[in-house]
Amino acid sequence: MPEGPSIVILKEEVQQFTGQKVISVSGNSSADIHRLEDKIIQEFKTWGKHFLICFEGFTVKIHMLMFGTYRVNERKETKPRMSLVFENGELNFYTCSIKILEGDINALYDWEEDVMNEKWNAKKAKQNLKKIPDEMICDAVLDQNIFAGVGNIIKNEVLYRCRIHPESLVGKIPPKDLKQIIDECSIYSFEFLDWKKNYELKKHWLAYTKPTCLRCNLPMIRKHTGKRNRRSFFCTNCQKLHI
């Protein structure tokens, strides 16, 4: 599943179509995508893992799910979920979820929840974490209403950086460590963005898929953790468990 930084890259790649009229629309989406025909794209936005194509009065929300892909000015052999053709190019989406949101997009999304948005509010994230003291931090970090854009790779890397065991309870983690986790969710997301643009993301992984702890030279634990049951990679020697 693409994480927030990958969706930001998508937004950057399609800026050429801002202000352009959609000449034709096709695809196998169940949404009423044909209403986009002859409409002008006002802007592209992202919120976490959501890619947003904004028109006057409505917005197309695209979620890449686990295996979604896209192509700019080219096509795959398979039929797209949605294909937008412009005078100077085309934009195609595959294996994704497409929904149409009515009204002002700014009334539908809280930009303060997006770790890569300029309005990201770390204090608000802290307040929201206080409401879930009995949740494991591995679940809390993946809560898109607190850390929009954070996915499983970022979760693992941030908790390793902060030396916190993924099964630690939010309410038991010392305030200074919780603050570091909150800050690192945003910091790491921007580093992820730069590394991915330079095609070097994997070489910077310290925990995700790693067999051995780089700090302790001990085997990393691989385990599905929390109620979300997502894969966690952690060292029981240097990542403290707070319960």
Automatic annotation (TrEMBL):
Catalytic activity: Hydrolysis of DNA containing ring-opened 7-methylguanine residues, releasing 2,6-diamino-4-hydroxy-5-(N-methyl)formamidopyrimidine
Keywords recorded for this protein, A-Z: DNA damage, DNA repair, DNA-binding, Endonuclease, Glycosidase, Hydrolase, Lyase, Multifunctional enzyme, Nuclease
Biological processes, Gene Ontology terms: base-excision repair
Domain named Formamidopyrimidine-DNA glycosylase catalytic: residues: 2-101
One term of GO molecular function: DNA-(apurinic or apyrimidinic site) endonuclease activity
Domain of life of the source: Bacteria
Pfam families in the record: Fapy_DNA_glyco, H2TH
Family: Belongs to the FPG family.
PANTHER family, A to Z: FORMAMIDOPYRIMIDINE-DNA GLYCOSYLASE
Protein name per its UniProtKB record: Endonuclease
